[in-house]
Amino acid sequence: MKTHEIPIRIRYGETDQMGVVYHGNYAQFMEIGRVEWLRNIGVSYRSMEESGIMLPVIALHLEFKKPAKYDDLIRVSTTLVKMPGVKIEFDYKICNEEGEVLTLGNTVLAFIDMKTGKPVKCPGYILEKIKSMEDSL
């Protein structure tokens, strides 16, 4: 599956008293990676929600290797694990400028119909965009 990378500069407010990125901020970095992964294949969260589908996180896993610090430039690599069904799963690798792995992560999200609150299969237009992206590799 295709991987999308995005650079993020660590802001002062994202660090704790020890000068390292507060652990809770890594979920936001992964959200940025996931949103940009989808945007890169031609799907926006906004349009998905406007069509009545929301995508809440139902599982999140983080494995910390090394800390990121204020003003570091990190790269968030986001990879789709497999073709989505009712759920969509992403792996993440967060590295520093030297390419050292700082954090590994995984999220599982569910496609939910906003009217009923019930899980639904991945919309066809998203599957088509993923398939066309894979075909172009």
Describe the protein in words:
This protein has 3 helices and 7 strands, in the order E-H-H-E-E-E-E-E-E-H. The chain has one domain (3-135): Hotdog Thioesterase (Thiol Ester Dehydrase, Chain A), CATH 3.10.129.10. It is an alpha+beta fold and 137 residues long. It comes from Sinomicrobium pectinilyticum. Keywords: Hydrolase. InterPro entries: 4-hydroxybenzoyl-CoA_TE, HB-CoA_thioesterase_AS, HotDog_dom_sf, YbgC/YbaW.
A few lines on this structure:
The protein has a single domain (about 5-135), classed as Hotdog Thioesterase (Thiol Ester Dehydrase, Chain A). The chain is about 25% helix and about 35% strand. It has 3 helices and 7 strands; from the N terminus they run βααββββββα.
Annotate the secondary structure layout:
Blueprint: E1 3-9, H1 25-40, H2 45-50, E2 53-54, E3 57-64, E4 73-80, E5 87-95, E6 101-110, E7 112-113, H3 124-135
Antiparallel strand pairs: 1-4, 2-7, 3-6, 4-5, 5-6
Number of strands: 7
Category by helix and strand content:
alpha+beta
Estimate what percentage of residues fall within beta strands.
Answer: 25-35%
- CA radius of gyration is 16 Å
* Terminus-to-terminus distance: 9 Å
Low confidence ranges: none
Written as H for each helix and E for each strand, in order along the chain, the element string is EHHEEEEEEH
Keywords summarizing the entry:
7 strands, 5-stranded antiparallel β-sheet, Thiol Ester Dehydrase, Chain A, alpha+beta, two-stranded antiparallel ribbon, 137 residues
